[in-house]
What does this fold into?
Amino acid sequence: MAEIKCVELCKNYQQGDAVIKALDHVTLEIRQGSFMCLSGPSGSGKTTLLNMIGGLDELDSGAISIDGERVDQLGKSALADLRLHHIGFVFQAYNLIPVLTARENVEFVMQVQGVPPGERKRKAMDILREVGLEGMEHRRPAELSGGQQQRVAVARAIVSQPKLVLADEPTANLDSHSAAHLMQLFCELNQAHGVTFLISTHDERVMRYAKRLIRMQDGKVIDDREQVPS
It folds into this structure.
């Protein structure tokens, strides 16, 4: 389970002579087992917030804790361990390893975790079947469409059932049917295993699945509401 607390998060980037406020005093509390979406225009701070929670970038100021542990104070080794064992990432750019097959990409994190070969192969095949890629396990990323690559990335992120999944535009390259299937899979993991989901999206179809919807603009939270998924 993952309970997240973000307090007064600030992150600025220099763009020429201008200072861009990517996060401007963002304070959030995300309960264990949440299924929530971050929405807002490009540059609103959604991806920056995901990266900060996942320990992929450093804050200028503020504090982030996951289950009471201050993520912003962890060293590189402890951060790597947190990401490896407890957080699943779904990146907009997929970040698949080109020389590995779909199955090997899904197995990669489990291999680093020390999962035995037979078990990780079984789990990888099961999750590829779940995301609709049965029969494509031997294809490398270049032999897959953009949508298929995204599904491999999703499978890799959730195969170990992490307690937190951070997903940046996970349906951006999927058709309506594939997007719906993916979101249903996310919902099942959330409901059956209590996995916390934090999803950045422009997709209204995705927002409808959220139990909580947060809208961001210019690095600030401008709306935060509970809703009934539809």
